[in-house]
Specification:
CATH topology of the domain at 2-31 and 88-174: Ku70, Chain: A, Domain 2
Structural class: alpha+beta
Subunit structure: Homodimer. Interacts with LigD.
Number of strands: 9
Protein name: Non-homologous end joining protein Ku
Strand order of the largest sheet: 1-2-6-9-8-7-5
Domain Ku: 57-187
Region (Disordered): 258-298
Number of helices: 8
Helix content: 25-40%
Distance between the termini: 32 Å
Order of helices and strands: EEEEHEEHEEEHHHHHH
Strand content: 15-25%
Function: With LigD forms a non-homologous end joining (NHEJ) DNA repair enzyme, which repairs dsDNA breaks with reduced fidelity. Binds linear dsDNA with 5'- and 3'- overhangs but not closed circular dsDNA nor ssDNA. Recruits and stimulates the ligase activity of LigD.
Shape: extended
CATH architecture of the domain at 2-31 and 88-174: Beta Barrel
Radius of gyration: 27 Å
Length: 298
């Protein structure tokens, strides 16, 4: 049980005639997000949610609620939860690999949710490692299907550190067509100086992806808002973003390219070093902000 977390699913992974026990663990969690409750503004009391009959306006208790498929306006075929369970394909708890494919073959628009896969026992570790290392050496991913969380799921499996990562996939009918999404965009091609300037700006901002470097600005802003309200402070209003107009786009690109060139490799002078040291000293005396501030405030 990695990190003390409970497996979301336990079963087997099979490739050819080889199989091993695996556990599926949630890779992404929202448990650290700030939770806001719905409150009655007039009374300050928390609001409770109720289901109301659309015609009579009467509250409908949980035991009286069923699912229904609308066949006409206001006409429904009632579907009982036990009937739904009866038609779900039976699960043999096996992720049977159907094919190994190049990692670049799958458009990430089909990605749904990521999960970690680990062996569930000592006996399964060798077979698990053989699959993981074989996929890594061959630079391939695996496509498998099984019943997960009461639905037949397609899963993309890839090597990830010492284990595997399994990403549930959207079905084709669930993904909107990109052609339809972009159909109203005019056909345009940028060339000449504008393209050269854009390429220059991009080249000066190249880097690598490190998720630890990116803060959740929404969570930090909410935490700061809560802290400010507790302290009776007002937050500054954000400045509106100015959209670059076609008639001044070239000038904006030239200005950006000049700024990038000037700041690409800033020189570290003695004055800059002293200023940085001063900022570090000042930061130690500032009150906590962001999520840490919220935790202290609460």
């Amino acid at each position: 049980m990695p990190g003390g977390h409970r497996a979301q699913w336990k079963g087997f992974i099979k490739f050819g005639q080889v199989s091993c026990g695996v556990g599926l663990y949630t890779a992404a969690s929202t448990s650290e997000r700030i939770a806001l409750n719905t409150v009655n503004k007039a009374t300050g009391n928390r609001v409770n949610r109720q289901f109301i009959d659309g015609e009579t306006g009467d509250p409908v208790p949980r035991e009286a609620q069923v699912k229904g498929f609308e066949i006409e306006n206001g006409q429904y075929i009632m579907i009982d939860p036990e009937e739904v369970a009866a038609v779900i394909p039976e699960s043999n708890k096996t992720l049977e690999i159907e094919a190994f494919i190049p990692c670049s073959d799958v458009d990430d628009v089909y990605f749904d949710k990521p999960y970690y896969l680990t062996p569930t026992d000592k006996v399964s570790e060798d077979a698990f490692a053989a699959l993981r290392d074989g996929m890594r050496k061959s630079n391939v991913a695996a496509i498998a299907q099984t019943v997960l969380f009461r639905r037949m799921r397609t899963v993309l499996i890839r090597p990830h550190g010492k284990g595997l990562i399994a990403t549930t996939m959207h079905y084709d009918y669930e993904v909107r067509s990109s052609e339809r999404a972009f159909e109203e965009m005019p056909k345009m091609k940028i060339a000449g100086e504008m393209l050269d300037l854009a390429k220059h700006i991009i080249s000066t901002k190249k880097g690598t992806f490190n998720p630890a470097e990116f803060d959740d600005r929404y969570e930090n802003a909410v935490a700061e808002l809560v802290k400010a309200k507790m302290e009776g402070r007002a937050l500054p209003k954000k400045k509106p973003v100015k959209v670059s107009q076609p008639n001044n786009l070239l000038a904006a690109l030239r200005e950006s390219a000049g700024m990038m060139k000037a700041t690409d490799k800033p020189k570290r002078t003695a004055a800059n070093a002293n200023a940085s040291a001063g900022r570090r000293r000042a930061s130690h005396s500032k009150p906590a902000s962001g999520a840490a501030a919220h935790r202290k405030a609460s």
